[in-house]
Amino acid sequence: MQGRALADVLEGMRHNSNHSAGRDGLGIGRATRRRFLAVLPTVVGCLGFGLRRRLELWTRPSCAPPRSSKQLVYVVDDCQELTVLYRLYLEEAGFEVKTFNDRAVALLAFRSAKPRPVLLITDYDGYPVSAEQFMGECRRTQPELKILMASGYPECCLSFAVVRPNRFLLKPFELDQLVAEVKELTGITPA
Fold first, then answer.
1. Roughly what angle, to the nearest 10 degrees, separates helices 49-58 and 25-46?
2. 70-91 pLDDT tens trace
3. 105, 78 contact by CB (below 8 A)
4. What per-residue string of b and e applies to 151-173 under the rule 16 or more CB within 10 Å gives b?
5. Which phi and psi (to 5°) does residue 125 adopt?
6. Coil, helix or strand for 183?
7. What is the Cα–Cα distance from 138 to 106, expressed in whole angstroms?
8. Domains of the chain (ranges plus CATH)?
9. I need a labelling partner for 97 at 20 to 30 A (CA). Which of 63, 105, 108, 130 fits?
């Protein structure tokens, strides 16, 4: 029953986002994010005990997931709850994931990473570097990098003069959809 209620809430949020896009699309991004974060406890509550336990452990600053030889994905979003949730689902799908809540820190890590990530997931909002500047710097460092943008702003409201992401996901979205997009963009069947 709880899973059905969650699906109804997410569908209602998606419906509201789609209908608001034609009017003042940029104004709905933050409202969509607030609604998405409001249902996060329900999402986590629906997860199995193992995922909930990992969520509790990984939100502690001193804990980090174990290193592996899996394909590396960077997740950059100023919302810590979302980066943790994305990491949980992507690691369950077989990817190695590093999360960042600050683009400047992520850019430094990206430039020095060996190996570099095969995919970058980022939000449109974020400071101190704009999304386009951040994507541009990462692409200059690694031209073949795939980028997935996940944002509460409809894509038609976003401006990209030079650098565009390979794919776009409008928040809120199903986390299985995120995993499917990542698999398709990387062309990898994760372990």
1. 120
2. 899 999 998 999 999 999 999 9
3. no
4. bbbbbebbeeeebebebbbbbbb
5. -75, 160
6. helix
7. 10
8. 2-186 (3.40.50.2300)
9. 130
